[in-house]
């Protein structure tokens, strides 16, 4: 799958269909949009495209808000490719793009630069300067320039509309089951394993230290996790996410300990999936008490992960 960054003209295509959005999480609602795009493109022997933004528009307009990402661009690229997309186009969300009117977005970007034949969005889609465009504007402007615009209704379950906000709320509550169900897969943090202070190794439970970066912070505590190594191997484990109150100074880290694994994986990119919340983070009276609790956490994690391939 190709990934293109910037607003360069596209290679001429006989027929291409695009869906537009932030797509943070790649949840069931996002998949419904992509399924429509892929089906339409295949029917016309065309190309299925995803247009997304980086940074997220919220980071541009409100840079002070806490980190909230559910996926990185690289994770989204892989997920879109697995779902059938042919290319992901990444637009830099900057002052120039923020000032682009709805009319210019359709005419200059979609029609002239990308040359798309169809656009699929959600029913509540807005775009352009000050959100001046909506699905009606997109339909009317598109029709005048050879672009067919269509919409897909929201995907709902017993809790209401499936959205990235619901997933974030679930993760902040430590509700991995709900997050996994809405996302179509477990929430996963991808990061390079860092050298640390070796506290886990000294306690008999070596960990792979991972910086949370721009990801949403789920509820601090201990989780049953699975790790994916660069070679594709999957490892079961238990992880602490938080500031490590037992040690000074406080430092936020995701620290997965993988069972029956002793290889050096420093400086490697791994992915850590959150499967079940086990307990809140805590401080203990002694290191012996902490070691006993970690041992129990590992046993609890093994039970929570039992049956996973």
Walk me through this protein's architecture.
The chain has helices at residues 28-43, 57-61, 73-82, 95-98, 102-114, 135-144, 164-172, 176-183, 199-203, 287-305, and strands at residues 2-5, 16-20, 47-54, 87-92, 118-122, 126-127, 133-134, 148-152, 156-157, 160-161, 188-192, 221-228, 234-242, 253-258, 269-280. It is elongated and about 70 Å long. It has 309 residues and is of the alpha/beta class.
User: Radius of gyration over alpha carbons?
Assistant: 22 Å
Large-scale geometry: elongated
Q: Residue share in helices?
A: 25-40%
- Low-pLDDT sequence parts: 6-12
Order of helices and strands: EEHEHHEHHEEEHEEEHHEHEEEEH
- Could you report the average pLDDT, rounded to the nearest whole number? 91
Largest sheet: 6 strands, parallel
Structural class: alpha/beta
From the N-terminal CA to the C-terminal CA, the straight-line distance is 27 Å
Give a brief outline of the structure.
The chain has helices spanning 28-43, 57-61, 73-82, 95-98, 102-114, 135-144, 164-172, 176-183, 199-203, 287-305; strands at residues 2-5, 16-20, 47-54, 87-92, 118-122, 126-127, 133-134, 148-152, 156-157, 160-161, 188-192, 221-228, 234-242, 253-258, 269-280.
């Amino acid at each position: 799958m190709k990934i293109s960054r910037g607003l360069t003209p596209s290679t001429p295509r006989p027929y291409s269909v695009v869906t537009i959005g932030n797509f943070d999480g790649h949840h069931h609602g996002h998949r419904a949009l992509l399924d429509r795009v892929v089906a339409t493109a295949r029917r016309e022997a065309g190309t299925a495209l995803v247009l997304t933004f980086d940074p997220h528009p919220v980071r541009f307009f409100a840079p002070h808000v806490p980190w909230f990402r559910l996926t990185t661009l690289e994770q989204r690229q892989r997920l879109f490719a697995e779902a059938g997309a042919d290319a992901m186009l990444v637009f830099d969300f900057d002052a120039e793009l923020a000032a682009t009117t709805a009319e210019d977005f359709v005419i200059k970007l979609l029609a002239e630069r990308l040359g798309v034949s169809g656009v699929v969005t959600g029913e509540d889609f807005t775009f352009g300067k000050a959100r001046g465009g909506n699905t009606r504007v997109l339909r009317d402007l598109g029709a005048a320039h050879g672009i067919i615009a269509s919409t897909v209704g929201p995907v709902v379950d017993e809790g209401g509309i499936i959205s990235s906000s619901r997933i974030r709320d679930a993760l902040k509550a430590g509700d991995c089951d709900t997050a996994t169900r809405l996302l179509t897969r477990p929430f996963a943090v991808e990061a390079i394993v860092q050298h640390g202070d070796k506290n886990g190794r000294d306690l008999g439970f070596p960990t792979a230290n991972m910086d949370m970066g721009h990801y949403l912070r789920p509820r601090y505590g201990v989780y049953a996790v699975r790790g994916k190594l660069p070679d594709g191997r999957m490892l079961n484990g238990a992880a602490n996410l938080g500031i490590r109150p037992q040690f000074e100074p406080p430092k936020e880290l995701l620290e997965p300990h993988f069972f029956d694994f002793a290889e050096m994986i420093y400086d490697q990119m791994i992915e850590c999936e959150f499967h079940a919340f086990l307990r809140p983070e805590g401080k203990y009276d002694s290191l012996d008490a902490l070691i006993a609790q970690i041992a129990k956490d590992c046993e609890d994690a093994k039970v929570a992960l039992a049956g996973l391939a």
